[in-house]
Amino acid sequence: MTSAAEPRTALADRLRADFPVLEQTVHGKPLVYLDNAATSQKPQAVLDAIAHYYYRDNSNVHRGVHTLSARATDAYEASRDKVAAFVNARSRDEIVFTRNASEAINLVAYTWGNAEIREGDEIVLSVMEHHSNLVPWQMLAQRTGAVLKFVGLTDTQEFDLDQFRSLLSDRTKLVAIAHVSNTLGCINPVGEVIQLAHDRGAKVLIDACQSVPHMPIDVQAMGCDWLVASGHKMCAPTGIGFLYGQKDLLEAMPPFLGGGEMIADVELEGSTYAGLPHKFEAGTPAIGEAIALGAAVDYLTDIGMDEIEACEHYLCQYLFDRLREIPELTVYGPEPNADGSGRAALAAFTTELVHANDLAQLLDEAGIAIRTGHHCTQPLHKILDVSSTARASLYFYNTERDVDAFIAALKDTLEFFGNILG
Length: 422
Fold this sequence. Notes:
The chain is α/β, with parallel strands linked by helices. The chain has helices spanning 8-15, 44-57, 67-86, 101-116, 135-144, 161-167, 190-199, 219-222, 247-252, 287-303, 305-323, 356-365, 378-384, 400-421; strands spanning 25-26, 29-30, 32-33, 95-98, 122-126, 147-151, 172-178, 203-207, 226-230, 241-245, 263-267, 270-273, 329-331, 346-351, 368-369, 371-373, 389-393.
């Protein structure tokens, strides 16, 4: 835990050495990794956890009485306890391990959605949703005849809460929105959204992929019915994510996939299913990845999510202060507050001087890693009237030096293209 007197930048300086991948050069330049909204880097403690499983404890879980199986099972289930505590779930049974957040959303759509959504029922989404929080609901609407409604943007490119109120009706059965936009960086008012939806009798799913790694999350205080997140954005490996669901809802939902592990008894003519959370975890799970997710949760908890959030507020303020030096840029989403709060520490932007893809390639030559494209938000990009944006996204191990290197390379690149265009 960082002391109150320790400068915000000291957190990154102190922890950066925990991330081996950052200690390298790219094209002869020190790596500056600013693609954290796509995936975060992994600390040594997480790498050690997954290696330890494969070196020492590799065995299937829940099925064996031998020592390796017992150790693997204990570590796997301990990770569930850690995730439950991390988001303040009431019970460990409310945490279901999935491959990623996309699978978690599909789980809800194919179980609760198929059972509860009928023709004419309404599902409210927003225009800023990641494709993973659009396509499953489009497919559900096609299967059931449900109606999709979409919340638009305010003048500051934030979630339009007034329009959301107007879209709610007695036919609204589900609201599914991102907590934080991966393109606009806005932090959506999920507390008010959940209360308004519940007042209408609707359920709420929160896509927390861009919030769980960056701020404290309390699902009980939030009051959501489901929440999903991906491990690879929160210092854990790829191939592991989780679904939080209120216990009564999960108990009422039918299984998603059939197979081993999710059963109580199997007869030739039929089966009975295991209790929570195993009812939703068919087959051999991603054991090493889940154990490493627990290690990532330990790592983040040891730092303190309040401290990570405060660090990123500072970095957000610093990033936007530096971006304002470049008038050729159009930056999307709301401005941060004076202290850097009010939005995520990421910036999606365009310039008329160069296409985003070409810009990213040239920045890569300077050792700067950013993301370009539509960031799995094609409908939002159409509304913004751009086909592609460049995005720089920060995490707690980034420093002002990273931002300065990015800005210097960005200025050099824009000056180069400006001279060409004359």
